[in-house]
Specification:
Blueprint (H helix, E strand, L loop, with lengths): L13 H10 L6 E4 L2 E4 L5 H17 L3 E5 L3 E3 L5 E3 L3 E5 L10 E2 L5 E5 L6 H15 L4 E6 L4 E9 L2 E9 L3 E3 L7 E3 L9
Parallel strand pairs: 4-7, 8-9
Antiparallel strand pairs: 1-2, 3-6, 4-5, 6-8, 9-10, 10-11, 12-13
Length: 193
Amino acid sequence: MTIHRTARHAQMSIEDFEQIARTAPETVKFEFINGRVEVKPMSDQLRKAMTMWLLTECMRQRPELALYPEPGLVTEACRTGRARPDGALAPFDNFVGHGEWAPADGVLMTVEVTSHDHDTNLRDRVEKRDGYAAAGIPVYLLIDRDTQEVVVYSAPQGGRYQNRAMHAYGATVKLPHPVGITLETEKLKDYTR
């Protein structure tokens, strides 16, 4: 395995990363973001509750879709990233037959709920957002627990989302096409600490 130490190169090849991720214990989930191996933070109970609330809303309004928890997605430009969003909204069976790391084709929206760790700003607010845009995922929904906002990114073009809408908890949030779901976010206030 070749590991590069410079910021301009990936720490290792995609193949080496996938081998490490495949052999890791079930309690550890790895991601490959911007050429770096990252350990996905474990969800606390409030983060899980937020994800379950969103899953319920998605199923109620778009029963033909599923919000898959933590799927392995191929992301970033040239498909060099490997991410595990907190959720990915896609048609049923979208990931069947793709193994641990599925292409982002068919994914309508990715979801991240910020964790309270030291690198959530770079990881969730910048790197993963940009990786999802580069993969052409139409909508990125960020539930930001630090700012108590729901941030909706949409219209990916040239590796960046062209639109960003920020809403305080309690607002009515209309997720754009192709998602087409309206979220009444008052419930998120119950999950603040």
